[in-house]
Amino acid sequence: MSRYLVRRLLLAAGVLWAAYTVTFLVLYALPGDPVSIMYGGESSDVTPEQLDALRAQYGLDQPLPVQYVTQLGHALRGDLGTSVVNGQPVTTLIADALPPTAQIAGLALVLAIVVGGGLAVVATATRSRRLSGFLLSLPPLGVAVPSFWFGLTLVQWFSFQIPLFPALGNQGFASAVLPAVTLALPTSALIAQMLSRSLLHTLREPYVDTALAKGASRTRVHLRHALRNAALPALTVTGLVIGGLLSGAVVTETVFSRAGLGRLTATSVSAQDIPVVQGVVLVAATVYVLVNLLIDIVYPLLDPRIVTGSRRRVTSPPPPRPADAAPEPAADRVPVTAGGTR
Amino acid sequence: MTTAPERLLTVDDLAVSYRTRHGDVHAVRDVSLHVDEGETVAVVGESGSGKSTTAAAVVRLLAPAARIERGTIDLLGRDVVQASPRELQAVRGLLVGLVPQDPTVSLNPVKRIGDQVAEVLRIHGLADRRAAGIEAVEALRRAGLPEPELRARQYPHELSGGMRQRVLIAIALVARPRLLVADEPTSALDVTVQRQILDHLDTLTAETGTGVLLITHDLGVAADRADRIVVMSQGRVVEAGTPDEVLGSPREAYTRQLLAAAPSLRGARPVSVPVALDAPPALEVRGLVKDFPLPRSGGGGTLRAVDDVSFRVPRGGTLALVGESGSGKSTTARLALRLAEPTAGQVLVGGRDVSHTRGSELRALRRQMQVVYQNPYSSLDPRWSVGQIVGEPLRAFGVGDRRTRATRTAELLDLVALPVSVAQRRPAELSGGQRQRVAIARALSVRPDLVVLDEPVSALDVSVQAQILDLLAELQRELGVTYLFISHDLAVVRQVAHDVVVLRQGRVVERGTVEDVFADPQHAYTAELLAAIPGARRPLEPATAGLVAGGER
Q1: How far apart are CA A275 and CA A94, in angstroms?
Q2: B281-531 is classed in which CATH architecture?
């Protein structure tokens, strides 16, 4: 397990480095000069000499590889530079923006798992063909609805028609509900789609018949046998949608005028605030990598067939297993999954 | 026993149909049968005969599209057809146990073995958690699983197929049901494992007086195990009676056909091909060794899958490589075909050493050696037409132009006794036997000298098996093609091979002509394989079976 963990951690570090490098190359290859932006563009009254001095101050006069190495070094020490728009450290900006976004994203994730998972379970468990057909048609709809429209509709209904939640801003838990619901919609749809497919497939597996033949009720078979097997592929998808939650936050926070990582991204991209954009990308990549690292660690606990430490899947000759060295005729000792009788 | 045995199961006039896009398909019609206490009743038939549907109906585990149209199923006085879901739950597991067909997929992969066995007791409230765990271990022990305490803590993927089938038997019997429904319980297993499992089932049920409804496609198994045999065809019971009645003097043409097809009951191979012994062998391997590296986390080292294997296949003859799963026979074939690199040893084709041939020379060599795989359901590209499949090797080797290739394809289909119209169809529209004919036609398209047949009939029904084996023998007579025949089934080998090489754990334990090896096996392992052929308990020729005194099982 520890070997597995070390491998995973190294991989995660590699992904982060790659994300940093690619953003650096893309952002600095863009036309545009951070120093000119900072001081009001070409038409401003700052002299070219002053601009050059500023470039030297920010290290922008250095060749690109030197800039890259210097910045990477700073980033490793936790210094992501300063915003070229308002001069604040990027780390401070992100630290302020992260909590509100984490609040709605976390809430959205819980909602998505509960609603999406619940929908999938009910749709596959019900005996009513109509109900199941209706429920299974919802996920594609959920993905298709544009989230800005859905967010505005929610505001219309639950802030203006029935004033339950505030329409805008960051004031407490109530203000997080509508953005979270907006954010949860496409995510829950994806989870529902994936899990219901997976459940329908799992319910056709022969071991489900074995469980029924034991006298188990349909509910028991569904929840104790099928769900755990079906949840495995859905878990992988959940890891992927967390990236989607962050990008969804850009639209949602704009619609609800909430401060947060999404808004910070939107404003700094439009202002070409390169250090901030790079910081945000790095944070997003970190979250993504951490979540998937967590899933990689949890997966073997849920599925005993995943052997940690890159051991065999099904290879052609079965390695002899000491556990099998029982006084049993040889025939019984050979796994049938082996390539022998193919 | 003086008192009449209790009647456990009565199926009367049962009819089951499946709803399909093309209307209802009547899978089972007018089926009546019964099972008494302590009795084993075998239902025999080919796929599509309705035997598995009948078994599923008894426990009401039919596919969603299936419907019981009429008839009654009486299980110890309970009407199974009309029973509510709750009543069915009370019956399943407690009064009737089910041993499913394929042990490799019939256990929940993410639950421990012990929990899966104990679950039956927990569902029926027969024991609390602790007691159920202890009883589960006991049930595993009774099912003949070594080290049951250890097994109970393991997961299904850590056990071999034979062990998993024992687990399923433990699940079926842990609540001591009165009736056991076993649907092809050993079809997915090696013959020697099959025998152990069936022997064990016999003992367990004999002790408790459990009745067994045994579903099988193998008349040999039925002959060995059953008190009564019910033969089904196209959803109907065509014949029923004791093994002596049914196998000794079959009244129905269908039973006779099935009997003639059963490899285990078929006598020696139909025709012997004269082989010129002095001709250079079509294929020879010398001292083949293949090591596979073991995972570093498992301590490293290597596993020797093939260990010093040598044999020669005479031109126009058939050599059978026989062994169980993991014996190295498929790896040996891959080495011979140069699909894998041997660790040591030589491969000679037509007397020429090709062990290190590469590039275009290797490609030319491929043309001389073709393969037919075990499973015709997965070895044909589902998106291609049969014509494209059969013609592919011709295109790959650039043989002829479009027109001559089409002619050759038609010729090949004719050779394997398929109508030319099949060329336009896709594999999904063909039966298993037809698909295997397509695979054979594809292998023969470039006129190879040697065809490697890797378990070519294992996935097929017995009667189809017989047809394919006959076809292979005929093709060999006509074309003089050489076969390397890989099989775990000695009954099949007896019908097609001239020479036999028996492999065990990568080593050759016995070799010789079919006649010698079958008549007088030298190695204990060969004798064990021979004894495991189902039907061995009965005389081979059906004609003489009537002369044997009844009473003996």
Answers
A1: 11
A2: 3-Layer(aba) Sandwich (3.40)
